[in-house]
Design goal:
The chain is mainly α. Helices cover 48% and strands 0% of the residues. The chain contains 4 helices and no strands. It starts with 23 loop residues before the first helix and ends with a helix.
Length: 115
């Protein structure tokens, strides 16, 4: 099993195969261009082949990977989980501070008015 990163760019080609016997007319036309040893048309048709590589399509497909789970999502999820399990959030801490200030204010006010 390979733990490699995906390739940045990949090129795929669809291949198809077809074959036929080399035509006698083609062999007669091209026998003069061949090296020594191919003296007859039968030698050419029995021992040589012509390869044509054709693309089946001219379409190009581009696949782009985009990060859909960024830092903002990660921090939001971590904060949500912490808030769920700890039962505390920023608003709870602010409310706790306001509650303590209100208690301190009422205590100070009561002490000042009782003197």
């Amino acid at each position: 099993m390979c733990h490699c990163y995906p390739a940045c760019k990949e090129t795929f080609y669809k291949a198809s195969l077809s074959s036929s016997i080399l035509s006698q007319f083609y062999a007669e036309d091209h026998i003069s261009m061949l090296p020594q040893g191919y003296g007859t048309v039968a030698d050419v048709t029995n021992n040589l082949m012509v390869i044509d590589i054709l693309f089946t399509t001219t379409q190009e497909v581009e696949i782009t990977e985009v990060v859909s789970y960024g830092w903002g999502n990660f921090l939001g999820d971590v904060g949500g989980v912490l808030g769920l399990f700890l039962g505390a959030s920023a608003f709870t801490l602010i409310e706790l501070i306001l509650f303590l200030v209100a208690i301190a204010w009422s205590t100070v006010k009561r002490l000042v008015t009782s003197k």
